[in-house]
Amino acid sequence: MITTADGTIGAQTARPADHPVLGAAGLASPASLYRPLTVADTVEILADGAADLLAGGTDLVPALRTGRRRPRRIIALRRVLELRTRGASADGLIIGAGVTYQDLAGWSLSPGLAATARVVGSPQIRNLGTVGGALGTADPRGDLLTFLSAADAEVVLRSVHGARTVTVPSYLAEGRDPTELITAVRLPRPCGPQAYLKVGARQAASAAVVSCALVVDRVRERVACAIGGVAGRPVRPVAAEDFVRAGVDWATGTAPPDVVAGFGELVTEAVRAVEDPLPDDPRASVAYRRHAAGVLAARAAGRCLSGPSPVRSAGGR
Amino acid sequence: MSEPAYRNVSVDEDPACPSHDAGPRVSYQLHIDGGVREVAGAWFGESLLRVLRDHLGVLSVKDACEQGRCGSCSVLMDGRLVTSCTVLAADAADAQVTTVAGLGVGGPARAVQAAFLAHGAVQCGFCTPGFVVAVTDLLARRPDADEDEIRESLAGNICRCTGYGRIIAAIRSVQEARRRPGDTRWRPGTGQRPGTDQRQGTGR
Ligand SMILES: Cc1cc2nc3c(=O)[nH]c(=O)nc-3n(C[C@H](O)[C@H](O)[C@H](O)COP(=O)(O)OP(=O)(O)OC[C@H]3O[C@@H](n4cnc5c(N)ncnc54)[C@H](O)[C@@H]3O)c2cc1C
Ligand code: FES
Ligand code: FES
Prior knowledge:
The structure holds two protein chains of two kinds. Chain A is α+β, with helices and mostly antiparallel strands.
């Protein structure tokens, strides 16, 4: 049971009005913590756009501590079990916003997502951090964001007015309305090898300096690539994708070494051409990141396109 | 750090934290190490780490970075290893929180603690409670983890003294003791004398 200074407020019933389990009643703009149990209740509490969402807390709680974020109202999503499901249908995979990196790390249905989740943070962070939180923060170096960009994923948002689905690039361009909850991401089922490679300040428990996601689709005969850590959002090197696609022998799913090397060079070119490059950083210059992007892309392509295994994932080393 | 003063610090008197005026004081219960503790008048945005230390006087949970990076504040929440500085305390109200003191006698915790002492894996000791929680969690899930997996699993726990070699040696001794024929209990390794292991970690 949780109480405020002026009395006890229950938390278990369904009406949103009953959910401010922590709050100062009587203030003009009451500051509260809400702990709803369902998506329907969550979007109702969100309807005035005046609350911050809390998932695993790995980004938000340190920001509260330093005062970088000062919400008057917080909606904690930990008890919304609907958000913690993931599944597969004929069309693809759907992953609830409350699914953690740890949940994804062992998921055999998506080897690329699993490889990505395994190189995020530490076990402590992977046990807490969620898909919804990664999209909410939308850090241009975020590992999941980079992989989802290569995988042509879509973001499902819900408000009291209903649900809508947008592509990752348009989500990143337009953002989320403050009345909307991210409920899930959708992505196509893997149809070939996938890789996620990352260079960080350390080999584990550190954010990406540069990263590369590669998704090979042997059914549609396509190669998709996304580079993280070089621009304000993950970069899709379209010319490089087209080049490697044309160079793959799709009967075997393999590409010769010169195609793989050329792909790396074209990725470096694409990174050089981005309009909003992330600025120089004392430990990772723009030139280094450009170079590393090409190296990672060629390495990922080498792993995914050298056959013979039909579906293969490569981890973060 | 004088204990009583620290323990009774009220959030109102902590000017270093600008966010404390941004919400109400709230009261709730936490389930810690099998017991129920009352939290009275905590700021609603307080982390589990701050509530454990400042409101409840649970000082074995160490505070070093408050950014989830060092692991010294590690606890189990509903059996999962987490950094308590990145958990909102009031949202942990219905969870079981386990600190190093509550790890219990059934699992590897006691053996891990004894092995840390025997192998010189405790120097200043600041990182130790967090390490013991993380190692106990690892060995309970993956008793036969190899050295690479051990190092990777502990990447979220930083130690500034030992160079990690002695910590790894302590963990290996716990694993060896468990593997001895006829012995399925967790107990500390006895093969090495204190301080004889000079292996150093790669620091990753
Ligand atoms: C030590 C450390 C290491 C890290 N290492 C990595 C790393 O290697 N790679 C990496 O990519 N990231 C890393 N991170 C970042 C972090 O873990 C991720 O961004 C994480 O996915 C955030 O998820 P969360 O559930 O903790 O989010 P929270 O902190 O709870 O929320 C983050 C943001 O998303 C919003 N939000 C949460 N859920 C929703 C939702 N359903 N709908 C709309 N908005 C929502 C919140 O309002 C908030 O603005 C690291 C963080 C730490 C502290
Ligand atoms: S104090 Fe929590 S991880 Fe450092
Ligand atoms: S023993 Fe001093 S930090 Fe680890």
